[in-house]
Amino acid sequence: MLFNAILLEKDATTGFSPSLKNINKQQLLAQEGDTLVQVEYSSINYKDALALTNKSPIVRQWPMVPGIDGVGKVVECASGRYQQGDMVILNGWGCGETHWGCLAQYAYLKSDWLIPLPNHLTPYQSMVIGTAGYTAALCVKRIIDFGVKPEQGKVLVTGASGGVGSIAIALLAKLGYQVTASTSKTDDGDYLKGLGAINIIDGQTLKQAGKPLQKEQWLAVVDVVGSHTLANVCAQTQYGGIVTCCGLAQGMDFPATVAPFILRGVTLAGVDSVMASYAKRIAAWELLAQHLDGKVFDHIGKTITLTECVETANKMMAGQIKGRFVVDVNQ
After folding, report:
1. Does 44 lie in the same domain as 14?
2. pLDDT digit string, tens, across residues 60-84
3. Is the dihedral of CA 322, 324, 109, 274 positive or negative?
4. How many domains does the chain have?
5. Residue 123 is assigned to a structural domain of this protein
6. Backbone angles phi, psi at 243, to 5 degrees
7. Count of other CB atoms within 10 angstroms of residue 54
């Protein structure tokens, strides 16, 4: 059996090469796993874009099928955890980095990595959410569990036009929070207000070095940018507030002081989506299934094919897109 997949290859002679290829099932089954999944949809996340463009050493073994997200139907499951025909979701677990991922018509995965598709979501909707939205939900859940109530103060979302930011705004707004969106894309105001943002600020104002303590503005923050942006939002967070950190779009550095943490009691909470526990994943996806407004999927989702993935990844790296790109692997 042959199936279509994007294959990333790299060697000393030809260099890096992403291409759409026919893959033999036996090649796939040589991967470590116990569950064969017929993939319906995948998506393009920032990490996928890094892999597809070779802009960062995301891929750690070659050749590699990228795709950290996938939803599809179980064909067979040796562990017995899932039955033939069950619909399952994959997010993370090193797929697209050390294990072949889901930008393909089939994926061979470990059943421990999979969760059932929530009843209230279609396969397509689950990939509009994808790892970006699931990460956003982990951040929102952390804010809720921290005890932040909607009536207590404003919530800031940085990198608001991207996948994590878009879902975070929509979810927080639906839950009743007053959301301010930070974006460097000044033309995206209508898009962000359509998601539920009340205020828009220019993300460029956060990207330079700032004072260790600044005017208190935010009770909670979802940050995907890192670097000076993260340092500045920590300096602007209210006494006893929380900043969730899940990205590094501006950089991996954190040029800050301890002042917000020891003088205002601010909490900086790291959020990891790749290796999160099954319980955390289920809770995040249930939050999304129950509270994400259905109109959001049409507002932020766009469908592409496997052949369009590399072009989309390049546009993502150039900051030229917004929202979420779902990949129909069978088109």
Report:
1. yes
2. 999 999 999 999 999 999 999 999 9
3. positive
4. 2
5. no
6. -120, 120
7. 16
